[in-house]
Amino acid sequence: xxxxxxxxxxxxxxxxxxxxxxxxxxxxxxxxxxxxxxxxxxxxxxxxxxxxxxxxxxxxxxxxxxxxxxxxxxxxxxxxxxx
Length: 83
Ligand SMILES: [Zn+2]
Ligand SMILES: [Zn+2]
Known about the structure:
Layout: E1 22-24, E2 30-32, H1 33-37, E3 52-53, H2 59-62
Antiparallel strand pairs: 1-2, 1-3
Residues 25, 27, 29, 44, 46-47, 49 line the site of one zinc ion.
């Protein structure tokens, strides 16, 4: 099951479970759309994998399957990855 992390690792903006701006890699590194399309160039800076739109969990499922509340944030921010 997806963790549905609450924020972008690069800029720490909020990415609620119903956000259409959330992007994830296969490891669920989570970023916002503007970081993904901007500095990251569509690829995860941690693993090099592609970043795709995170599916939204139906609202009625969130009570039973709540999203993660652990914020993962790179304090140094995101530089353009080496690839
Ligand atoms: Zn961001
Ligand atoms: Zn990744």
